Amino acid sequence: MRILVVDCYDSYTYNVCDMLQRISKDIHIVLVHWDKIAEKIWSNLHVFDAIVIGPGPGHPNDYSAVLNKFWETNIPTLGICLGFQSLCLYYGATVEKMSTLPWHGRAATVITTGESIYQGVSEVKGMRYHSLYAHNIPVKDLTILATTKEDNLAVAVQAKRAPHYGILYHPESICSTHSQTVINNFLLHVVKPSTADLPTSISSYNVRPTPFVDYSVQPCFKVCTQELSWFDPLSFIEKIERDNSFFCFLDSAKEPGEFSMLGFTTGPNAYTIHYQKSIDETTFTHCVSQQQNKKPYNIWKAVAEFMSERKAVGGLKQLPFHGGLMGVLGYEANEMTKKSASEYSRGLNAFASKTAESYVDAELAFVDRSFVFDLVQKRVYAQTLIKEEQTLENWWDELLLSDSDATSNSLSHKGDQPKTPTVTISDRKSYCKKVQDCQSYLLSGDSYELCLTDHILVQPSKSIHDFDLYKRIRNHNPASYAGFMRLPHITHLSASPERFCKFENGHCHFSPIKGTLKRTPTTNIEVAKETLLNVKDSSELNMIIDLIRNDLYQLATVNSVSVPQLYSVEEHPTVYSLVSHIYGDIKAPTTGWDVLAHSFPPGSMTGAPKLRSIQLLEELESLPRGVYSGIFGYWDASLEKGEFSVIIRSTFRYHNENIWHIGAGGAITVLSTPDGEFDEMLLKVNSVLPAFSKSN
């Protein structure tokens, strides 16, 4: 069966595709953007057995010039959410804002007629994401098939003159029920489904992404591993890092941690990599010779090519990292945002340098020398990536002998505690106004959820050493994804609690966080569960769960994405968080790097639909986010595994400034209160800010 799926730039379209493909392995899908449908598609609509018009932001009238063409055919067509509204509008119904608050991310009870596409189904749960609704539906042209129990809203219709159907709720959502039955009933209206593949001339217009490169190349590096006597990683770094050298430290600070990793750029095969979005250029610098190689395209493709040429074999299988890529990818390192870090040079803040080249949107290192610390077994491994013709060099003894006290567990801070810094942060009134602006967009149907953030600038009262600052942040808020990275342009200090994506041997794992509760003497995990499992926080997380499922479905194998448990509450040193876990599988030639690229930036930091939300947030937020809201972590040289976390509860500095940047914010929904969102933003800032001052 051949199905054309029309994407209206929603963040759930790939969920729709997966829902269809779960019906039968014989379903062949061509996915097209609504505003970029080639003439070849229009002139060959007859080759499709069915059409599905997906959800999207805005009013259906904005899409009418294109979508009405589908309603003029006799091809079985199903419209979802925006598609439902488009069908109703085509037949003369009124589509406008709801008179009550929209049900974004909330499931309603849907009562059906038990007929047509609802044959055999009398009641379903339907996840609602709409801000607009259809009324004055012309019953001479449309039959109402389902309404909501809670507010008696028409949520499914059928045209009387053609096999056209509309569903207002999202059947593809994780929280909707009986969707496979409903979709299968729709597909039964296809008279003579084709079992043949689509003609190449048509299938070539499919916009589904593909891997950047063919990673099935012969390895050119081997991993050499040497087990050493145990030493404490923090104490060791304290002894060796005072020369301001570049290194990357991924620190499992929250107990019980499993592994920490320390990567160096001192070997003969090491590189640093930085990306400048303003000129769309990725630069690779060989750390020994300082020779540079520039690629005139984005970092995702450039790094994919680079790593495919440095594939490694060997090493201990139980270790997560054997050398390879470590670093940070800032929020603007994507094609959806227009801003870039270079805008700091335009005087957007009083501390900025005027040199645009000083600001990079991503910075990574290819480390050929590393230590991995097994925190459970108290074991340390020195690892080296070498080429076949190279001889292994003992580089670790010199480091370990550089100070005989490296095995000390002392974590004393050097120097005086800093005095109160100068902090630039939005005032309550201006931030609350932005929250209200977000809610106006939500009510008009432009977004379901907007992750608004503030950009805080911190100028220390005197020079503060970056690793001392990291230790204070770590002591105040030890986190699962803590880390310290000092690279040529950026220093990044993290106390992040949130995994973005972990991938290993074809398995991917996302862990989005939504909903934060401050820890107090009177709260415990049971109180946190009762408090966080409320309508607002759970609906926030529902929207991001569906968004991440969508991002993962772009490259995941059919029927592999799962959410075993919708919600759980995690305990952190300063807060409790509501979290979910989404899993999916990929197969060669796709790698975790491809999944990262097509899931970036993290949906928990944008809102949904992702593209439209990013565009709206860029209007509301005066400064680029920079490193904040991006990701940091590692990609192993085996190309088989890696892990990246979301850059929150963190601070970073561009080396041409004497200023530290902190980002913080929250997801704005129609249920948010402006003052509550401002207080939540301050709560998150204070997971990092106290480290800059001698008092909290």
Automatic annotation (TrEMBL):
UniProt-listed GO biological process terms: 4-aminobenzoate biosynthetic process; folic acid biosynthetic process; tetrahydrofolate biosynthetic process
Name the UniProt record assigns to this protein: aminodeoxychorismate synthase
Family annotation (SUPFAM superfamilies): ADC synthase, Class I glutamine amidotransferase-like
EC number(s) recorded for this UniProt protein: 2.6.1.85
Record-annotated Glutamine amidotransferase domain positions: 4-189
Biological pathway: Cofactor biosynthesis; tetrahydrofolate biosynthesis; 4-aminobenzoate from chorismate: step 1/2
Domain Chorismate-utilising enzyme C-terminal: 428-684
Source organism per UniProt: Schizosaccharomyces japonicus (strain yFS275 / FY16936) (Fission yeast)
A single Gene Ontology CC term: cytoplasm
Every Anthranilate synthase component I N-terminal domain range: 230-381
Alphabetized PANTHER family for the sequence: AMINOBENZOATE/ANTHRANILATE SYNTHASE, AMINODEOXYCHORISMATE SYNTHASE
InterPro entries: ADC_synthase (IPR005801), Anth_synth_I-like (IPR019999), Anth_synth_I_N (IPR006805), Chorismate_C (IPR015890), Class_I_gatase-like (IPR029062), GATASE (IPR017926), PabB_fungal (IPR010117), TrpG/PapA_dom (IPR006221)
Signal peptide residues on this chain, from the entry's feature table: none
Family (UniProt): In the C-terminal section; belongs to the anthranilate synthase component I family.
The entry's keywords: Folate biosynthesis, Glutamine amidotransferase, Transferase
Reaction catalyzed: chorismate + L-glutamine = 4-amino-4-deoxychorismate + L-glutamate
GO MF term list: 4-amino-4-deoxychorismate synthase activity
